[in-house]
Recover the amino acids of this structure.
């Protein structure tokens, strides 16, 4: 049986990221971590690159449980929403790094896997 790359790229893995005493739960697609994605993450080194980091995050994350506050509700997975929410750059960078680490192990810590629709 052949390996179907298009199907493999649809895999979705769960991930938890701890920051500031809280846990952000998300799902991401490791098949979307391309050379260009890695280059964008590596090239984003200062505050001016927050837009690039926000975009890289949205390129691979399919869901998360981040909310602005109890009153304001969830933060959409769109670069503009992430910028508007003023999510700290270190948190965005940490999420991207944790995605890279998890993907490099084949998501071996994943409790469940699914396919994107």
């Amino acid at each position: 049986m052949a390996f179907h790359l298009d199907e493999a790229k649809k895999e979705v893995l769960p991930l938890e990221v701890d920051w500031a005493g809280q846990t952000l739960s998300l799902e991401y697609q490791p098949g979307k971590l391309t050379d260009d994605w890695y280059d964008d993450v590596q090239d984003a080194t200062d505050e001016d690159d927050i837009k690039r980091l926000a975009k890289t995050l949205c390129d691979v994350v399919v869901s998360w449980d981040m909310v602005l506050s109890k009153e304001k509700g969830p933060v959409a997975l769109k670069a503009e929403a992430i910028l508007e929410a003023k999510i700290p750059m270190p948190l965005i960078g940490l999420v991207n790094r944790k995605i890279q680490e998890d993907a490099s192990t084949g998501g071996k810590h994943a409790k469940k896997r699914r396919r994107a629709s």
User: Anything to note?
Assistant: Helices lie at 5-8, 35-43, 50-60, 79-85, 89-104. The two ends are 23 Å apart (CA to CA). The beta strands are 11-19, 22-28, 61-64, 67-69, 73-74, 114-115.
